[in-house]
Amino acid sequence: MNIQLEKAFFEFAKSVDLEEAISLAEIISFAKRSGGNYGKNIKDTAMKLEENLSIKQEIETITTEKRLELKVMCVMPLAILAYITLTSGAFIAPLYGNLLGIVIMTGCLMGYGALIMLGRRIIEINI
Q1: Dihedral sign (CA 15, 18, 24, 27)
Q2: Is residue 65 situated within a structural domain?
Q3: Which domain holds residue 75?
Q4: Per-residue pLDDT tens for 44-94?
Q5: I want to staple 31 with a disulfide (CB 3.0 to 4.6 A). Which of 35, 41, 100, 127 is the partner?
Q6: Using DSSP, how many helices (H) and how many strands (E) does the chain show?
């Protein structure tokens, strides 16, 4: 195999399609052209890539936690409303028995839907 080291790394980076692999290939190519210390450059690059992946994992963990919180927060108002309706229907009947109650509950439903969409947008992070 008479393939240059940089070319082999670039082909590998293209095949796996990872930003980190492309960065590694570029750094190795630059180090060879500038005559740098391969061992030190690769070690530094590996440390930076490891730190980058660690940060991505931490962000993923935090956003997963927030997604679960959002799901719970989306279900709770409906669960509370269902509980009140089942246990004391007369208490909630005025909200659905006249025009003012229907208007208020429709407004609450619209606000609830808007807040769910806002919450989903907030936790949407592209890494």
Answers
A1: positive
A2: yes
A3: 60-123
A4: 877 888 898 899 899 888 888 989 999 999 999 999 989 998 998 888 888
A5: 41
A6: 5, 0
In the structure encoding, which two tokens stand for residue 28, read together? 């190795």
Amino acid (one-letter) located at 6: E
Q: Does residue 98 lie in a domain region? A: yes
Cβ-in-10-Å burial (0-12, 13-18, 19+) of 118 comes to: exposed
CA separation for the pair 26, 97 (Å, rounded): 69
Q: Tell me the C-alpha distance between 9 and 34, whole Å.
A: 17
What is the pTM (predicted TM-score) of this model?
0.59
If one counts every other C-beta atom within 10 angstroms of the C-beta of residue 9, the result is 20
- DSSP string over 22-50: HHHHHHHHHHHHHT--HHHHHHHHHHHHH
On whether residue 82 sits in a domain, the answer given is: yes
- 111 occurs within a structural domain: yes
pLDDT at 110 over 90: yes
Say how many domains are in the chain: 1
